[in-house]
Amino acid sequence: MAIFDIKLPNSILKTLRLPQNNPRRQQLKVLKKLIRKARFTEFGQKYGFDEILMSKHVGKKYQELVPVYNYNKIYNEWWHRTLEGKPDVCWPGKIKFYALSSGTSEAASKYIPITNDLLKGNKVVMIKQLLSLRTYTDIPVKSIGKGWLMLGGSTQLQKGTGYYAGDLSGITAKKQPFWFQPFYKPGKKIAKEKDWNKKLNEIVEKAPEWDIGFIVGVPAWIQMCMEMIIEKYKLESIHDMWPNLAFFVHGGVSFEPYKKGFEKLLGKPISYIETYLASEGFLAYQDRQHGKGMRLVTNEHIFFEFVPFNDKNFDANGDLVQNPEALMIHEVEEGKDYALLISTSAGTWRYLIGDTVRFVDKERCEIVITGRTKHFLSLVGEHLSVENMNKAVKLAGEELNVCIPEFTVAGIPYGNFFAHHWYVACNDRVNAEQLRLKIDEKLKELNDDYAVERGSALKEVFLDVLSEEKFMDFMTAKGKVGGQHKFPRVLKGKILEDWQKFLKGELKVQN
Fold it and tell me: Global pTM?
């Protein structure tokens, strides 16, 4: 009998804390656990964690006494001292690992604290997700025991004064349990490689030696890796090399723009499993084959709050106002967009992670990621979300029968009014004017505010078709190659200036 056919006893379910209770009760239990552990830290002493624990209404008292933080605020007030080796600042003990953020919207890397408690919680969630595969129908169980190709950051971490820093994927791979070693590819030696192109070439060389059942990573880089393997070995599909490949675990960006091009590389259908693993922690995962979204991890190591993503709580730049409205999990509604605040077992307190989510099934705590607080366009009130953009690109691509793996949009002045400028990656033959009209048409259908403003202050839409290689070259020029790095869907400020310089040939690719 396969492990996934076994019905787990209640004792094991309790040990793994598999979600089966009231989410509100689970979340308050998690909050109490976090506060109790951090009560003697400097942060806990300043913000009255003992008083919160003694309160009848722990959640509300926590919101009353502890302020909301973004990265710059919590780093400047608290986290910078942990980098100097000071213990017991926001979490007990010294912080020995930091995840370097992979975003392209900030000039400098962010140092996100990683603790053993956080990594332990992440591992438990990974096991839960693995166990959830027993609910998948027609699951090729033999594929689970095959190799897991995880295309992440280098495990060769940067050494600081008393700490190490790097991609979370690299830290996780470096500290993975011994029992996983036989399954893990590309193996320790290749995983240490920092040069992304060299790493990909080494993976391509080793590919015939492996029997891969799972691939894990950001869609763009996984697709590139499979294309290189198919080209080198003159294959019809990746399944000619790895016949047991059955699962693709992805996250970080919407998979829809990549799906059409991705499936051209396959010889048979595979299952797609979405995860929400950020540098700050493992927040959610798809736990059923045809789920509407991902289930939030409500009973492990993260306490969630939800800020309605509207003009009352955010300014025009996507920055949080002081004292925003913050809801707990039992107070949310389906169909509304919320920005996430998280408190974690790494000393991250009421922290604005920057993503926006929407509940699609409140009872099951299932969410979809709808965008970023900074990655939206609302020059004149069009309120265009990344979700709108993804859908419009997908629909336009389907109607014109073309694959659009990457795109980005900028808002620009246009006379006395404004315009949107789209940059679209497409290696198929496509009429740029037709594509421009299609995307504009779909956005009008999807977003009423956009439709209104297109007849008013949003006077024009421009669109340039570029090669996918152009987008990758820009990421290389910015030093954002491989691992968890994603191309931003909306360009603003410094990143927009750099993109415009790059297209003019003024920003060169790093060698």
Answer: 0.79
Neighbours of 335 (CB within 10 A): 8
Give how far Cα 319 sits from Cα of 94, 109, 236, 309, 315, Å: 31, 19, 48, 11, 5
How far is Cα 314 from Cα 317, in angstroms, rounded to an integer? 8
Helix, strand, or coil here: 300? coil
Identify the CA nearest to 372 among candidates 357, 361, 362, 389: 357
Beta-carbon neighbour count of residue 186 at 10 Å? 22
Residue 457 has a CB neighbour count (10 Å cut-off) of 16
Three state DSSP letters for 247-285:
EEEEECCCCHHHHHHHHCCCCCCCEEEEEEEECCEEEEE
Domains of the chain (ranges; CATH) run 19-299 (3.40.50), 386-503 (3.30.300)
pLDDT in tens, 271-324: 888 888 888 999 999 888 777 789 999 999 999 999 999 889 988 777 888 889
Residue 28: DSSP 8-state: H
Contact present, 430 and 466 (Cβ < 8 Å)? no
